[in-house]
Amino acid sequence: MTHQATTTYTLNSGAQIPALALGTWQATDQQVYESVVHALQKGYRHIDTAAAYGNEEPIGRAIRDSGVKRDELFVTTKLWSSNHNDPESAIRKSLELLGLDYVDLYLIHWPVALNPNGNHPIVPTKPDGSRDIILDWPFTKTYKLLEPLVEKGYTKSIGVCNVTISKLDQLLSSSDIKIKPSVLQVELHPYLPQHKLVKYAQDHGLVVEAYSPLGSSNSPLLKDEDIQTIANKYDNASIATILVSWAIWRKTVVLAKSVNPLRIESNSQIVDLGDEDGEFLNNFAEIKGGIKRFVDPNWSPVVIFDTNE
Ligand code: A2P
């Protein structure tokens, strides 16, 4: 009853994006190299990384060693916060590490700029230990600096991560935007469905991507009896298969991370989820007593998330 996930969506840039991607956060270089080679050999065609993950070099090597042609692949990387002042240098560095001439998608990782000349290249801090944020640098200014990267051919499409409806609205309504964002990447799973945000973005022509779709490390979702009951109905599919299938049922891209060869394979096997099961998972957080967010770094004093979305 399971089948390989082959769904693709069309981005507003005209490009096709595979609905299933291999997520690569929190994996060592060797793990990520082996996972990417394995995933590509098992049919994955979409790899999601970020400059801040520090793994672009092994991913580039894995892509080359996999034998899969570049034009059959969709590669995403992300601009880190301490490089908001100079996205062109940042993407050139990412491309050099990946060994690629272009990426398919370049995303602003967080809508907050960090001091590029601070005391640490990734997370510069102030004497009180808080992140060294440039409070008067709006992410819309960074977005404007991404547009030339499309014009210069470094990336095919651009987009944003971790923004609220109000920030997305601010971006979409700025009169000087020439290239619309193609993608919104946020944390999404049955404990954090973010229905309003997903609908707002989809209604405005963005493809929405789900990170931590399985509920991240030590996920309570993967042990949930109600989701297990749904999985049993589909020829004893795994809970992970149901979570990946739900993400695709609601027309989002799903970035499932695994470094385990069998789990990488099984996560690419989906079922055609019935609407009743999809609706149950839509209402899951409400039924279970509230939302749970697994990725919530401290960007104080900036407020990133809006729990009403
Ligand atoms: P591992 O990499 O050892 O497989 P998310 O995609 O939500 O960030 O979740 C990833 C977490 O879920 C990782 O800890 C990953 O561990 C684990 N994981 C991935 N696929 C499966 C699966 N099919 N079954 C159980 N755990 C999984």
Overview of this structure, please?
The structure is a single chain. This protein is α/β, with parallel strands linked by helices. Helix 1 (29-41) packs parallel to helix 2 and helix 2 packs across helix 3. It has an eight-stranded parallel beta barrel, surrounded by five helices. It has helices at 29-41, 56-66, 87-98, 139-151, 165-172, 195-203, 225-233, 239-249, 261-267, 275-282, 284-287, and strands at residues 3-4, 8-10, 16-18, 20-23, 46-48, 74-79, 103-108, 155-161, 183-187, 207-211, 253-257, 269-270. The two termini are 34 Å apart. The mean pLDDT is 96. The protein has a single domain (6-215, 252-259), classed as TIM Barrel (Alpha-Beta Barrel). The protein contains eleven helices and twelve strands. Bound molecules: adenosine-2'-5'-diphosphate.
Give a nutshell description of this structure.
Helices cover 34% and strands 17% of the residues.
- Classify the helix fraction into a percent range: 25-40%
Taken from the alpha-carbon principal axes, the silhouette is globular
The CATH topology comes to TIM Barrel
Mean pLDDT: 96
Q: Spans with pLDDT under 50 lasting ≥5 residues?
A: none
Tally of DSSP helical segments: 11
Order of helices and strands: EEEEHEHEHEHEHEHEHHEHEHH
The molecules bound to the chains, other than polymers, are: adenosine-2'-5'-diphosphate
In CATH terms, the superfamily is NADP-dependent oxidoreductase domain
Terminal-residue CA separation: 34 Å
Q: How many structural domains does the protein architecture include? A: 1
Number of beta strands:
12
Strand count, sense and barrel status of the largest sheet are:
8 strands, parallel, barrel
Identify the CATH architecture: Alpha-Beta Barrel
How much of the sequence is in beta strands?
15-25%
